[in-house]
Amino acid sequence: MFANTVNKNRFVCSIALMLLVANWSLGQTLSQKIDAEVSKPIADFEKKAAPLCSDLEFIRRVTLDLIGTIPTVEQSREFVKSTNVNKRSELVDALLASPAHSWYFAMVLDVTWMERRADKHVPSANWKQYLRESLLANKPYDVMVKEILSADGVDAKMRPAAKFYLDREGEPHLITRDISRLFLGVNWQCAQCHDHPRVEDYKQDLYYGLFAFFNRSYVFTDAKTKQSVFAEKGEGDASFQSVFDPAKVTKSSGPKLFMRAAIAEPKMEKGKEYEVAPTKEVRGIPKFSRRSQLANELARGDFEPFARNGANRLWAHMMGRGIVHPLDLGHGDNPASHPELLDLLAKEFVKAKFNHKEILGQIAKSKAYQRSSQVPKGLQDPKPEEYLVGAIRPLSEEQFAYAILQASGFTDAERMILGAKVEEAALQAKLAPQATPIINALATPAGQAPGYEARVEQALYLANNGQLQGLLAPRKGSLSFRLSEIKDAKLFAEELYLGVLTRMPTEDEKKEVEVLLGKKDVDKAGVIRDLVWALMTSIEFRFQV
Amino acid sequence: MNCNYACKTVDHGVSRRAFLGGVGGLGLGALANPLAAKGLAIQQKRVLVVFLAGGVSQLETWDPKPGVVTGGPFRAIPTSVPGIHISELLPYTASWMHKLALVRGINTKENDHGKGAYIMQTGRRQEPANEYPHFGSVCSKLLTEDKNPLPGYLNITPNGSGAQSSKDAAYLGPKFGSVSISDGKAPANLEKPAGINSEAEMQRHLLRQNANERFYSRRKSAMTEAYTQTYDQARMLMEKRGLFDITSESGKLADRYGKHDFGRHCLLSRRLLEGGATFVKVSHTNYDTHHENFDFHIEQLGEFDRTFATLLEDLDIRGLLDSTLVVVMSEFGRTPTINRNFGRDHWGTAWSVAMGGCGIQKGAVVGKTNATGTAVVDREVNGGHLFHTYLKALGFDSKKNFYVDQRPLPMADPKASPIEEILL
Amino acid sequence: MQNDKDAKKEAPKTPEVVKPSPPPVFPGLDPAAARQAKEFKHTSALLACRYEPSGKFLFTSGQDNTLQRWEIATAKKTDMAGHSSWVRAMVFAPKQKLLFSGGYDGQIISWNYESAEPIPLRQVLAHQGWIRSLSVDPTGQMLVSCGNDGRIAIWSIPELKPVHSWQAHENHAYQVAFHPSGKEIVSVDLKGVVRIWDLTGKKIREIEAKALHKYDAGFGADIGGARSMAFSTDGTVLALAGITNVTNAFAGIGNPIILLVDWATGKITKELTPKEKFQGTMWGVAWHPAGFVAGTAGGNGGMLWFWKPDQPNEFAAIKLADNSRDISIAPDGKAVAIPSYGGFARIFDITPNLNPPKEVPKVPPAKK
Questions:
Q1: Taking CB atoms and an 8 Å cutoff, what residues of chain C touch B67?
Q2: Mind telling me how many Å the CA of B177 is from chain A's nearest CA?
Q3: Helix or strand holding residue A239 (H, E)
Q4: ipTM computed for the complex
């Protein structure tokens, strides 16, 4: 078999190495596997990469990402002091286990799936409650997606889940596009009219295969109750032509998801397609529903795009960019930056029975997540997809709003009022009315993927808006109040910087505070107000750093 | 390869984040026309769009047909351009015809308010789940310098109406979206908050700057620069808030503009354009006269006519008219057939738009409708042609593309082209 | 005597003509039995109509800028061209056989209404913008006009020399008329402001007919004005017709209404409205010498109603074939004429129907 001993030895060594590696990876956690995959493409990854972030940077980062706000001063101090070697890991587990995570993640899912569309048929509050209760009950991701894709708004209990369809007015092209973007990570927008000229994978018949699940559906409004539901006809074809086809050949597609087998449709005798025939007053109920076939086809572990998209979005939530990026543009010409990493995460997501906390937690525990954002000396132009350095990423509107409430001490003050055994729901009820205007001032236009954009109206709002300034006013338990009681400039600076930026002040910063407070006839309240505002509107607060 | 069909969307054009990642100013990629950048240096151009909401009747304005069954009771009057007649309801505007041009052969094939407005604002037909940027957003991107304290697309909306979708910048990004000036009142949050005097305002601004400078000494990115820039822009805009105060204008001039909303809004428009705004849209409501079309057009055009003429004169006197593209448009025209309630209904089949100022051939009339106004018989154009024309009037090559994350997106509908006859 | 059960079974159906019991009695008349007696068709939509004082002719105006003279007995039509816009106002000076027409071209034209082919005799540019209303004084010597310029102007008959004019209103003046006494002039504007003047133009009194006006904030426009006006024969009551309850001016969502103003006190004493809600404008009101009020509306179709002036709801309602624009009562009081959008001038016989059909009287369908 082997020409000579050298080759034989090489062969034996390779086998031994492989076995070693295999043994090692058997014992690895997912977070370790993540780091292995992240470091693979770059030689001497660990040498080049930035060190891990500090404890304070970590607690701020992970609190924002897992429960959508920043830690309290007490929590920060305690975390730094602790000598527990597992404290980071345990913090991650504690955050994920807290009800606050479900409250926050419900907001994340809402924004991801509804993209801030104005309420039409299902009130946002009901929908968010559905999401929240599902998360609190540890409902797996695939089950949630199934429910959303099956909902028609008829059953009162599951009606909120129908918001996805109903508040898109049941428009089949819009629904097709958004399902492909949000649940499958692909955007077949162009394929509505033709095969994508550049992207091989975006084919017109793939688009219409998905479209065909919806082409018979329509929103039906009961004239008496005024309630709208997602109804369905018993006939109708999804036919299409390519705008590039000079012959204008008309093709048609039955419901077919991606490369999966076409849905078998029973042959219906004409005139006998309905359980309940549609009229102006009555919604149609077909004997065979195309649309109801979709949920089981799509939301399943063995359907790769579904699991991959889920995993990719969870990764993006923590890391600031997807392994496939942008999140809804996965195709042959836009490959994953780390294909095996994505495969791994997708598989693990399935293995974890679509428990998203499992994946989020493992990402949070990885080194990749915990990298400092400071570029090490000698490292030139690190690319974001290399994950050598922690990303500087903007807070989402929700994160920013709730961070403002925490930083200003509004949340602390409300907690104080609510007492020792404060229920998450009660606290959230107090915070939401203050958070909503801030979110609205920053929010991106409805119907588009959430993202960050700096606009002058936002700066005007943060600079001049009365409601926001009101948060700076001293109140028992608020940061301004606590600061007003501190006489020592150094302690003052500590409380300030820990409270707003979750870090200790530098010498310069302590000096600045000292000078400000030491002024003759100082208006201390004014200094507090201005310092807090300046830090809240600084880059360091607006971005994850 | 370009996708020549209108399926460009935010998604198609890659996410905004990707577009903006690493962006501080106008955006990735070249300006559509490198010559435009040079042109900017020569003379700042600006745009004024007067939107007559509801669909003004072309038979009662730009294309009167007295004495025929569809003509209605109004007569045609001569204008300052021999051979051009417009409705007797526009006597003041008629005296400014020598600075205006008319497009009389518009067929947008659209009788729906929303869809018609979309066509006129974007130069494209509306498609489900597809968005094209408004003319205002395009101008904001092409004309507005970064250091301009005024937002690039100002939309003066009549009280309680005219609100635009925040998608109006589409794939160009929300930075180029419209900033609404509801009922001519200054944008929200333009005043220092109560309890903060100028000293305190300066102090906290400096503190914020210090904090950011310390941050920059450690790390920097285009995104964080863009963020801090908005605060500087906000402070500049706050300093310009006087622009929104029309009470400082002479009473006589304010009278000529008219003591009604449209008059005040047009006076504000002039102040903004003079103050450096590059795109101002002002709306007059309403013209959707299904009932008593003639009475209501007397009323509405009575307001429009004198105000518009005053605005043209005011821009002209201040030396701005030749560098300002002026467009008067609606979402469609009105039916030649007069209905049983003396009304005219929606009509996108044969109607008109008026233009003037920058790049426009003065006194030109392009397009013709038949004797009763029921069809275009010469030089039929649609919203796409108009969009091309506006861009070319401003000195841009309208056939070029925007580049959003290196993907080419045509500035105007590739199926259309500029109306050369109306351009200089 | 029938018992209740039978009464229920045999109660007569009255879908189109509403008769409160007992029906009012006007000697020789039965407005509730109004039926179409004649129909004249013009080539364009019609705006206004007036019987000429002898009753031989009916004059109509069209949306084609012309007037039409119809010889009622023979249906002979004579077209009268002269205006360069629509005409809404037509009045007569019978002594000189003159018809005066006021047009949206601001012109008053006088015609000899008995000539074989009437042509414009005299013409005067009376107003800036539309003339909306004309009236001849009881002596037949003066003509008064009003229009969109808000001015009232008095002219001599027949020369149409300007006698006197003044700025009567701040916005469009819709109606002007001499009081039957000839000593006062009344005018109404877009905003429902009613002003009473002496012949020198001095304002005697002002009344606000708020029900006739609405500023539609959604569209930024005023809708209002009295679209028609009529004095009772003795001049004690003034009827003003228009549209009220407007919720959407540009779609014409509102209801027709007639206000009755007591001349002596200047108070609005009654609102005449149809029992069954109708969407549209009351375009014509006329006061029959027998003492009842006729009103006609156009909007969602056309209607004709008759009221007793002391009752808010009509005693008769007749559905018309299409939108009506005006009303005129025949000099002998036995008929009313109504011009329509479809170009029809229709004459309705309001004398008792000696051969009533088995069913409720219906208006015959319009001849296409």
A1: 65, 84
A2: 9
A3: strand A238-240
A4: 0.88
